[in-house]
């Protein structure tokens, strides 16, 4: 414990399907160094774990400091024992990542979902710093988030709390990538914006002329294409963006009514590309949410950008190991 309290530097890792980022982070949330590597997910879990270790070594070569613990966020579902139950991008099922990394590194490891890690980052060192009640909603290719209530991160019974992208906003609606239909993600996630745009262009090729001209053919239209066309004043893109705002607002109203946060932080690639969605969503939500739930709410943009994952994973590891005897996320 002496070392834990005198050495506040932790490692934060953000593990995705094609790349991994590792950073040494100090007790104030500052990145001392960051290293990025490619992950070879096609070669299986052992190879990806070796990639993670190589990436960590890259940090230590740049900054000769010890770290007392490691936090790692991964795009997938992680149980309370640090077993990755399912990570579709890496094609992992039931990989005991915590045990494997602890055996290699000889230091405590905390494994969490990547969006939960990013929420930790925004909460501890980003837009939500110092607050006890906030919700962070990341709108990227998928939609995820985290709920901090009364100063605690909500984890849920089996550690999947905060899957805000899969709240239903349209009964009988569009098919989601989860088993459900009508989810927020199925309308406002990046993949869904692309799908909706492709459908709209197929339905009315004349109106979609400009959007198609940006990428060549319908299948190549992405959420970023819609954003680009919107910037150029395209009418169909404008309609798609306005619809996206209404769908997001529908989800946000449910989130505000359910959790009554003081702050709603919006981040992720879709928000970064279309920051005007923040104001549009806030305006719509203010008219629809319960007055008592929204009167003290502030809505802001995420502050840490692409670094939220590594900073948050490090913050989580630090929290777990500095304040508890055992480094477990649920403590
Ligand atoms: Zn869903």
Describe it for me?
The chain is of the alpha/beta class and 331 residues long. It has helices at residues 2-6, 45-62, 97-105, 114-125, 185-188, 190-203, 209-215, 223-231, 235-259, 269-273, 276-288, 291-294, 308-323, and strands at residues 10-15, 19-25, 31-38, 70-74, 77-78, 84-87, 92-95, 109-113, 134-139, 143-149, 152-153, 263-267, 298-301. The strands form three sheets. It has a five-stranded mixed beta sheet, sandwiched between helices. A five-stranded mixed beta sheet has the order 11-10-9-12-13, with helices on both faces. A hairpin with a 5-residue loop joins strand 2 and strand 3 (31-38). It is globular. Bound molecules: zinc ion. Zinc ion binds at residues 166, 176, 178, 180, 183, 185-186. Residues 166, 176, 178, 180, 183, 185-186 line the site of zinc ion.
Relevant terms:
five-stranded mixed β-sheet, 20% strand, single chain, alpha/beta, binds zinc ion, globular, 331 residues
Brief characterization of the structure:
By secondary structure, the protein is α/β, with parallel strands linked by helices. It has helices spanning about 1-5, 45-60, 95-105, 115-125, 185-190, 190-205, 210-215, 225-230, 235-260, 270-275, 275-290, 290-295, 310-325, and strands at about 10-15, 20-25, 30-40, 70-75, 75-80, 85, 90-95, 110-115, 135-140, 145-150, 150-155, 265, 300.
